[in-house]
Amino acid sequence: MNKQQLAARIWASANKMRSKIEASEYKDYILGFIFYKYLSDKEEAFMLSEGGMTQAELVQVEEQDEEIVQFCQTNLGYFIAYNNLFSTWLKPNADFGVENVTKALSAFERLINENYKKLFEGIFSSLSAGLTKLGSTAAQQSKAILDLLSLIKDIPTDDRQGYDVLGFIYEYLIGQFAANAGKKAGEFYTPHEVSLLMSEIVASHLHDRKTISIYDPTSGSGSLLLNIGRAISKHTTNKDSVHYYAQELKSATYNLTRMNLVMRGIKPGNIEVRNADTLEEDWPKDERTGAPTLYLDAVVSNPPYSQAWNPNNKELDPRYRYGVAPKGKADYAFLLHDLYHLKPDGIMTIVLPHGVLFRGDPAKDEAEGVIRKNLIENNHIDAIIGLPADVFFGTGIATIIMVLRQKRDRDDVLFIDASKGFIKSGKKNKLRASDIRRIVDTYTARQDIDKYSRRVSREEIRTNGYNLNIPRYVDSSDAAETWDLYATMYGAIPNREIDALPYWKHLPTLRDSIFERISSTHSQPRMGYDSSIGIRLFIETDKSFAQLKTDYNRTMDGLVDYLNKELLQSITAIPTNQEEDIISAELFGRLGKHPVFNPYDVYQLLDDSWQTIAADLEILQTEGWKSVREIEPNMVRTAGEVVLCRLNWYNNSFCQTNWNTKRTCNCK
Q1: pTM for this model (two decimals)
Q2: For a 10 Å CB count at each end of the chain, is N or C smaller?
Q3: Of 263, 224, 255, 359, nearest to 305 (Cα)?
């Protein structure tokens, strides 16, 4: 099941359940049951393989069998009896009711291995507490639960999807609830694209390390941590080399963090999670050495913006050695906490509102200005990336990503104004794959790009009173629009507009061949080239264009053979989560130095197509070649009728003609 199919089923079920529960609560039920299915399927597979059981023997597994219980607890951290397995609930002859779920969740809690208590204890609390909301009677509750179980029975819970299923559903549902309600989602999460951007920046810094520890002090769904782990996995073959630390204040989202990390197949020993207030009590601690502070390779966070907090008696807290954030805005409190837990050679990224760049005057000893000055003078700020407005649900404000380090070998700050790189998606803005790639490439190469990025010295920042507002250093504004009255009246073209086109540098003979200069300020098309067809024919016969075309063909020579080998010849064994990067590297290598083509535009075309390619690869790798041979009927709807067609009628000339004339189809 690909993402599109999964989203459609989830949303259809959510609409169906609206009469029973609040839409925003729906995710707690479906995510809880999906996780229970994952644990149940995992134990069943473990018993049949590692335990050497037959299906008939599995049916006899009960809680009273101490040896089997201990075997599962030691290897999995938990035990689920056969009668409580997810698959058992859905047996045709099963006498299922809400009490089965209640008893199963209670038994699960009781049978957790003591060494796994921190990971599993209370993980189903939201699900367990909400069962009574599914109906006023036990029968109604049982019916609602069975509907949910039937919905999710085919949802993949293994680690072959290339994306975290829980995180995807969580973000999808919150996004849908917010978009359909026209108000705040009631939850705060990092959009997938922003999470990917932060992940790529972190992975580029840590790509050559054998073991890595990463920490998110406001973990939410845990997807930010998982995306970083996924980005790092492209550079290592040992998936157990990453240790995850997560802290979350809300118990429901804390449970989701744990579910998400466990479902991605991360070893329990590599997961440390905590349900607590990040700002009030410092964490994580080094449990192995007993040291009061643990320092990590990467710290990432998307904290709640400008949140009120209690700064009283925080002056002596070593985390806030550069100053204490004001009580009405905890932004710098989160930032300083993150920085405090960073290793000297580590990296941190944090999403914050633009206000942190300029609020507070250090000359007047105002708190945020003082902290900002100390961060700059101690050389911690590595880069500031301005994001587009309307990227997050729940707020329309523009935000930034700040990249910080403990120790740096340079003292400039890279400013990137990426506020104009996005695509409109409904009511929100969305970073495209090419936007993310351009930001990451600019950061890693620390490039100065006109109207996009600039390295700024510490001395210049001092001159500006430690104000870090991006427009002070990168002018990304468009040139003022002008009107040429002569051109409007007489149909001429201003020379300045023609000369501004980028083509003439690479096609030097073309400009004066197409346009005739009628004055020092204006030109007009030459006779015979005043139509698109005429211009095209002339361009194709131009010598400089012919040379450009030859260079392009040389650049792309062998690409088809490369793609055939990379994709088609090993289609069932392709690592879906890595293949797009492999192909894009090939494209950038070919087009990176080409004088006309923008490799980021070409990369975006690849990514747009990759969604379909990845979905096909996913189906082939999870369902096998039989999925290619089975034809699913398409539902072709008109007013008042439904036609089942076993061909894509809109791609089939016979069916399309037949449909348009008779409103019937012989293929149905």
Answers
A1: 0.83
A2: C
A3: 359
